Each structure stands twice: as structure tokens, then as C-alpha cells.
Automatic annotation (TrEMBL), chains A, B:
SUPFAM superfamilies: Dimeric alpha+beta barrel. Keywords: Monooxygenase, Oxidoreductase. It comes from the Bacteria. Residues 2-96 form the ABM domain. One of its GO terms (molecular function) is monooxygenase activity. The keyword ATP-binding does not apply. InterPro entries: ABM_dom, Dimeric_a/b-barrel. It comes from Rhodopseudomonas palustris (strain ATCC BAA-98 / CGA009). This is Antibiotic biosynthesis monooxygenase. The lineage of its organism: Bacteria, Pseudomonadati, Pseudomonadota, Alphaproteobacteria, Hyphomicrobiales.
Length: 100, 100
């Protein structure tokens, strides 16, 4: 499993609408091959900055399957208008964990 | 609960030693007030880039309690020598989740 980390800066004042649009986009993600769940994080220091952390079974489930699908078109249709700039997207593998 | 996201670029060739040092630092985090666990993520696109995602009960558990403690000194003693630059640290709140 890999994590997609999308750093998204939204237009000032659009925060609540953006969050509602991401909630609506749950269905599009839920239909997507290899989707394992997401968390939407809001920055404390930069209140217009979000990070969408999406778990996928494989890298290709995001870069090929999702981006080539109608689910991606639906996602961008819901949230794209709130972006202040193109999202900065990176993928990671979890190499170590620690429990409290 | 909040998430500390520390973006850490390490010196080329030090990846394995850095990961071993983070494993050793589990104890220092485990002793820290408000610590709820961490994940170490390694970037797929930039193999010298890591993100340490640390869950804390409150922002102050990281910024005040941890940074002012001997646990922080121990952490930096273990990993600081591998840093290619000062880490870029941000804090987030989770505003939305979606399960597969």
C-alpha cells in the first residue's frame, strides 16, 4: 500500500465549500480501483492549505487507473474550482511505525 | 489530536542509517507527553525525502513539551547528523476521512 500526499492550497474564503466538495467526492474515490481510504488534513499554520492523504493498493492505482478514469474527472469537477494553484502531489511508502 | 508533518531530506547514502536511527528514537517518543504514535514515510519520487508523521494529543505537546524536553535532545542527537537541511515542520488537524 502506498500513500498519495496531495498538498492543496485553496482560494481564500473557499475553505468550507472545498471541504464540502471533498466530502461529496467520497463516492468517486470509493468506486476507484485500489482505493483504501483517505484523510483530509487542514494546516494549522496555513489555514488555506490542505493535505489529502490517500491510501492506494499500488502506485498505478492512482497514477494510471484513477487519473485515467471518470472518477478523476468527477473529483476535479467538484474541487478544481477551489484550487489556488495546481496541487503538489507526491507518493510515499511507510517504512516504520511506532505506537504510543 | 493533531498531526506533526516533518519533511526531512537526508544526505545521499544515509537513508538506511537514518531509518535505523528513527527506529532507535521510538523510545524517546514513547516517553513523551501526549505522544500518540508516528509513521515514517519515504518518498517514492525523491528517495532522500522522508515525512515523519507524528500524532500528538495537542499542538503544545509537540511545540512546548517535546521540544523543551531531553527526549527532543535525544531525538536530534540520533538523527540530526543525517539531515541535509533543517526539517520543514507543519501541523495539521484531520477534518474529514473516508474508508474504502
Amino acid at each position: 500500500m502506498i500513500t498519495e500526499i496531495a498538498q492543496i492550497d485553496v482560494k481564500p474564503g473557499s475553505e468550507a465549500d472545498f471541504e464540502a466538495a471533498v466530502a461529496k467526492a467520497r463516492e468517486a474515490f470509493g468506486r476507484s480501483k485500489g482505493f483504501c481510504g483517505f484523510e483530509l488534513h487542514k494546516s494549522i499554520e496555513k489555514p488555506q492549505r490542505y493535505r489529502l492523504m490517500v491510501k492506494w493498493q499500488t502506485l498505478e492505482n492512482h497514477t494510471v487507473d484513477f487519473r485515467g478514469s471518470e472518477n478523476f474527472t468527477e473529483w476535479r469537477g467538484l474541487v478544481g474550482g477551489f484550487f489556488a494553484a495546481p496541487p503538489d502531489v507526491e507518493h510515499t511508502e511507510t517504512v516504520l511505525t511506532s505506537q504510543a
